[in-house]
């Protein structure tokens, strides 16, 4: 279960002038096993919310309470040490996440999943961008989390890899859930149950049914003038 | 769900293995310099001494073992501070994982640095003994205790400095600059009783002086400590810097992560 309470976040610029809130008074509770689609226009704060839930960044006010194992945003490559090999980086993360006794399993999964072959024992800085993102994607899936965070992560790789990634995702969803940001609607409809619509300058909307959420969002994008009129059977983010 | 301690312990374990790897793989010359720097210093000082023909000995101790202990003790603190300053910057990428806090790489690096510096001390003293100098400690327990205390002072300073230089980046240059004068003012290469008493009064505010003197005191039983050396004063510094450093890390954790 993840609880988000009175979450406020803004980014200060150099002159420390006050800037607009990216997230303003966001509240919701995500029950165990429910997957959430986070939707909204560019700049609505989707990625910021993901970073806050993942604990990569800290809110200005309010808090995120994680009562389960939450991944870091899938596919984040920033945490790797370029001069170390893929294997060394993976071992490090396995140790951090308490897989010290199961390092071998993790490595086996990775070699099978990421398809980077011998590059696994080469420094990460020598990887092509495709290899790097496949590796990053695999690292996140190599560990068992209760909730995975996916910020446009499924857009990685060629068609074959995408299909494979989606398959692994589907298999995981029996045991785990996902919080997902994606511009591919079909994936959201397939994988998620609930939806959270973040709107710039307006309070966010919560939908118990992801289809309703996406329909309402699409309607507002197509006819921006009528955007508040179309959202009838919904309640405000609880 | 793991407990806080389990998470912390696995983070330290992981960081330690990573640090060992980085030190052995990428920093091969680093090993050489850890031994090379104090050895060159000793060679340099000994040649200056014989060149100047100074015969006045240090009372109760042979010069070279006296110098070795002072140098390694001083480097223990200096390396803790300089490595501590870079520990956060060098591991910035890791803060993408929320389990890792800015204080973690610092603590791990410090532990690692302390171990390496201990090995350096043992090697240098071992060499001195082999050459036939009187370089065996008289009070082994006391030496161990003072060595650990010096290391803790290094940790305290590193904790404080690592936060301060992130908040005020220009200070990094300043701190690196004062390490050399500090080498002389801490009585590492010249006994401080050569300084005029008026000046000595101020020099005694420096906790490193107290630490090094006490270390030498337990190493050579016949050694005459400087007047005014106090274990209590030294430990006050340790406790205050540790508390202040940890407090700063708690207070500025978010800002350290964000940079």
Looking at this protein, list some descriptive labels:
heterodimer; A: 238 residues; Rossmann fold; 2 domains; 3-stranded antiparallel sheet; 7 helices; globular; B: 259 residues; mainly alpha; 10 helices; 75% helix
If you had to describe this structure to a student in words, what would you say it looks like?
In chain A, strand 8 (194-199) and strand 9 (202-207) form a beta hairpin. Chain A is globular. Chain A contains seven helices and ten strands. By secondary structure, chain A is of the alpha/beta class. Chain A folds into two domains: 1-69 and 147-159 and 177-238, P-loop containing nucleotide triphosphate hydrolases (Rossmann fold); 77-143, no CATH class. Helices cover 75% and strands 0% of the residues of chain B. Chain B has one domain (4-258). Chain B has helices at 4-25, 28-52, 63-90, 103-131, 140-167, 171-185, 197-203, 207-219, 231-251, 253-258. Chain B has ten helices and no strands. The model of chain B has no long low-confidence stretch (mean pLDDT 88). The relative contact order of chain B is 0.14. Chains A and B meet through helix 2 of A and helix 1 and helix 10 of B.
Question: Would you spell out the secondary-structure blueprint of this structure?
Answer:
The complex is a heterodimer of chains A (238) and B (259).
Chain A: E1 2-9, E2 23-30, E3 36-39, H1 46-54, E4 61-66, E5 70-73, H2 86-96, H3 103-114, H4 129-141, E6 147-151, H5 159-172, E7 177-181, H6 185-191, E8 194-199, E9 202-207, H7 210-222, E10 235-236
Parallel strand pairs in A: 3-7, 3-8, 5-6, 6-7
Antiparallel strand pairs in A: 1-2, 1-4, 8-9, 9-10
Chain B: H1 4-25, H2 28-52, H3 63-90, H4 103-131, H5 140-167, H6 171-185, H7 197-203, H8 207-219, H9 231-251, H10 253-258
């Amino acid at each position: 279960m993840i609880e988000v309470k009175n979450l406020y976040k803004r980014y200060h610029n150099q002159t420390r002038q006050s800037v607009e809130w990216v997230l303003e008074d966001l509240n919701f509770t995500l029950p165990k096993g429910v997957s959430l689609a986070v939707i909204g226009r560019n700049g609505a704060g989707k990625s910021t919310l993901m970073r806050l839930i993942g604990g990569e960044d800290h809110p200005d006010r309010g808090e995120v309470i994680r009562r389960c194992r939450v991944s870091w945003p899938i596919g984040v490559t920033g945490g790797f040490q370029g001069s170390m090999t893929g294997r060394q980086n993976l071992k490090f993360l396995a140790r951090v996440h308490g897989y010290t006794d199961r390092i071998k399993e993790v490595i086996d999964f990775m070699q099978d999943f990421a398809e980077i072959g011998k590059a696994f024992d080469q420094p990460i800085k020598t990887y092509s961008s495709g290899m790097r993102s496949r590796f990053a994607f695999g690292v996140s899936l190599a560990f068992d989390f209760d909730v995975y965070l996916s910020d446009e992560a499924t857009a990685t790789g060629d068609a074959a890899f995408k299909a494979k990634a989606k398959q692994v995702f589907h298999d995981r969803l029996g045991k785990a859930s996902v919080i997902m940001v994606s511009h591919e609607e079909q994936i959201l409809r397939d994988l998620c149950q609930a939806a959270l619509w973040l709107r710039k300058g307006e309070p966010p909307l919560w939908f118990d049914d992801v289809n309703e959420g996406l329909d309402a969002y699409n309607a507002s994008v197509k006819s921006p003038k009528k955007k508040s009129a179309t959202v009838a059977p919904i309640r405000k983010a609880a | 769900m793991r407990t806080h301690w389990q998470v912390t312990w696995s983070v330290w374990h992981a960081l330690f293995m990573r640090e060992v790897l980085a030190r052995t793989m990428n920093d091969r010359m680093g090993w050489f310099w850890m031994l090379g720097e104090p050895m060159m210093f000793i060679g340099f000082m000994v040649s200056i001494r014989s060149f100047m023909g100074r015969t006045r000995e240090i009372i109760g101790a042979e010069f070279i073992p006296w110098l070795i202990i002072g140098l390694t003790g001083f480097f223990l603190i200096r390396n803790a501070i300089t490595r501590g300053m870079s520990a956060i910057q060098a591991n910035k990428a890791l803060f993408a994982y929320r389990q890792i806090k800015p204080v973690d790489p610092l603590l791990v690096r410090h532990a690692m640095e302390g171990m390496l510096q201990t090995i350096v001390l043992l090697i240098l003293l071992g060499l001195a003994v082999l050459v036939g100098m009187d370089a065996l400690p008289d009070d082994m327990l006391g030496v161990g205790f003072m060595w650990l205390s010096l290391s803790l002072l290094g940790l305290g300073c590193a904790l404080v400095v690592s936060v301060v230089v992130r908040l005020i980046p220009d200070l990094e240059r300043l701190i690196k600059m004062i390490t050399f004068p500090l080498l002389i003012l801490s009585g590492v290469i010249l006994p401080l009783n050569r300084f005029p008493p008026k000046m000595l009064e101020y020099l005694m505010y420096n906790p490193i002086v107290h630490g090094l003197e006490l270390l030498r005191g337990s190493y050579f039983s016949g050694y005459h400590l400087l007047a005014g050396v106090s274990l209590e004063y030294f430990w006050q510094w340790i406790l205050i810097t540790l508390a202040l450093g940890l407090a700063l890390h708690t207070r500025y954790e978010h800002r350290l992560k964000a940079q």
